[in-house]
Amino acid sequence: MLERIRGHVVVGADGSTGADRAIAWAAEQAAAEHRTLTVVHALDALVAATSLWSTAPSVEAARLGEVAARGGEEIVARAAEQAGHASPGVTVETLVRYGDSRVVLEEVARTAHLVVVGSRGRGPVASLLLGSTSASLAEQAACPVVVVRPQEGWRRGGGVVVGVDGRERSTRTLEFAYEQAALRRTSVTVVNCLWEAPVEGETPMDQRLDHRVLVAETMAGLGEKYPDVPAEVQIENGLADTVLWEHSRTADLVVVGRRKPGLIGSLVHSTLAASVVEHATCPVAVVPAEDGGAE
To answer: Which residue spans adopt a coiled-coil conformation according to this UniProt entry (predicted)?
Structure first.
């Protein structure tokens, strides 16, 4: 299965409104990158059985699996049709797998180019499940993950916004942001946040200059590689998640990095990514420090 989707854009489908938004976004992304879009639906046996018993109690237990599988195929077929409407000409494949959605999507992320999910599912239980799926993927997936938010009050057009800490590990996150800006023919705003007080003998102006120098070092070479992407650096006061939430109201995409598990400070970065994913208005891309996915 993993080889089948190598280099694909993968989107999770469950028939919900949140998944529908993700499908439309993923279809446009796959078309822009000239990649195949694979629609994946995970059949959780317990959830499927509970849903069927509540809606069709007359269905015999022996037929539950058959009915659930047929329902899964209907979901991915509908999703493929939606993708075609959102981006005519995009190549779409479908995949239905038994298992927890988090496990299935984390598995396909090992060879996928990008995984896209919605932020909410269908009904109280499904909503919790899809919410936990997006959170789990954002923390664990080997490739970049885009979580498509409900977008209430979204005023798009502000380009790609990327949060960085000005260290070398931000390089891959920055490059991803530039790639997305180039695809969209828009700008990149590089945001670095100040939340600590200046050290003794240092003025706020000195502190801002130090941060600007660090960010410039991590951006080195990207201007030459992406000459058509306008870039702006903003050094802002405040907690990074709060600052990025504000930017998400008008950004086309917010990009944040995720450190490799086990590194000092990785918990802080995981918390930042989770916070931005949970509260942002626009779609959010979470980029792992080291990508196990296919190029």
So the answer is: none
Among candidate residues 125, 148, 171, the one where a domain is terminated: 148
Q: Which residues have CB under 8 Å from 23's CB, separation 6+?
A: 11, 13, 39, 79, 82, 83, 86
Distance CA 173, CA 179 (A): 10
Q: How confident is the model over 244-280, as pLDDT tens digits?
A: 999 999 999 999 998 765 444 444 455 788 889 988 9
The type of residue at 23 is I
Query: Where in the sequence is the domain holding 142, given as residue range(s)?
Result: 9-148
For 270-282, how does the pLDDT look when each residue is reduced to its tens digit (9 = 90+)? 578 888 998 899 9
Domain identity same for 82 and 141:
yes
- Tell me the pTM: 0.84
Q: How many CB atoms lie within 10 A of CB 66?
A: 11
Q: Tokens 């790609």 belong to which residue?
A: 160
